[in-house]
Amino acid sequence: MNQDIKQILLTEEQIQSKVRELAQQLSEEYAGKDPVFVGVLKGVVMFFSDVVRNVQIPCQLDFMWISSYGSGTTSGSMNVKKDVSADLKGRHVVILEDIYDTGNSLNFTYHHLLSKEPASLKICTLLDKPERRNPAVTLKPDYVGYVIPNEFVVGYGLDYNEHYRNLPYIGVLKPEVYQ
Ligand code: IMP
Ligand code: MG
Predict the structure, then answer these.
(1) Residue-wise pLDDT tens digits, 68-100
(2) Reported pTM
(3) 134 close to ligand 1 (CB < 6 Angstrom)
(4) What does the H/E/C string look like for 105-153?
(5) Which atom of ligand 1 approaches the CA of 151 most closely?
């Protein structure tokens, strides 16, 4: 285990078994719909590539990259660094995200993609940290991997200062690393 990790919250096996379960659900619910899976960079890279490799129906892949300015993370201070390249009008779109925390970034992404007039728009997030939710964000993710406690986690795409994304598991960072 990495020396900066206090505790492993989700093992590689737990993550992969949930990934297969979610991919199975998506394969069933989107059969015949040629969905577009939109990954929100960069945290989602591992989850995205694992989910889509387990999806067994024709589908299209796309990516968005958003950034937030300043210390506040209200939707107003976010902008699109990279937009999707596909035309989403009339398409069945599923947003894939690593974590639903305050909800501000997913809320921004959701409304940004909704403005492109998809036939349907759903949200699939690997992690949900409900304790930190911004009360103004009322979106409910349609597919959730794991609900986790209010701890700062890294690994499997999630970072602290751009590090730890390559860990194959999800762990709680030792507080002394960021204090
Ligand atoms: P939001 O607070 O729901 O808008 O999440 C914003 C972003 O913060 C997420 O997409 C993650 O990249 C990041 N984030 C939130 N919680 C964690 C965490 O526990 N570890 C690492 N990144 C996190
Ligand atoms: Mg993210």
Answers:
(1) 875 543 445 899 999 999 999 999 999 999 999
(2) 0.95
(3) no
(4) HHHHHHHHHHCCCCCEEEEEEEEECHHHCCCCCCCCCCEEEEECCCCCE
(5) 19
Q: Take residue 23 and report the two structure tokens written for it.
A: 């991919």
* Domain range annotation of the chain: 11-152
CATH of domain 11-152: 3.40.50.2020
Query: 58 alpha carbon to ligand 2 midpoint, in Å?
Result: 25
Nearest CA to ligand 1 atom 8: 101
Task: Quote the distance between the C-alpha of residue 20 and its chain's center.
Answer: 16
Q: For 92-138, what is each residue's pLDDT tens digit?
A: 999 999 999 999 999 999 999 999 999 999 999 999 999 999 999 99
Instruction: Pick the ligand that lies closest to the CA of residue 104.
Output: 1
Query: Residue 62 catalytic?
Result: no
Pairing of strands 60-68, 78-82: antiparallel
State if residue 152 touches ligand 1 by the CB under 6 angstroms criterion: yes
